[in-house]
Design a protein that fits this description.
By secondary structure, the protein is α+β, with helices and mostly antiparallel strands. The chain contains 3 helices and 3 strands.
Amino acid sequence: MTETQLLQEFEALAQRLDIHISRDDLEGRPGGFCVIRGERRFILDRTLDVATQVEVFARAFAQLPLDDIYIVPRLREHIDGFGESQV
């Protein structure tokens, strides 16, 4: 799976989980997951390359409870890899 395909899968997963994605000027900060007024969001710096966006999504999803949600195996492996590195 290419980085672009991973990014598309992460965006689709966010949509399934009702997490809004926005890309803004974050002045070099990568962004991440947050909750604003009860709305779950991913805010990403608009200048990030695809590989960095994938990393930001993977790190954030690794912190969320996803055990009961079907995720394509390649994406699940990517998320789990970031979760294990946090331990």
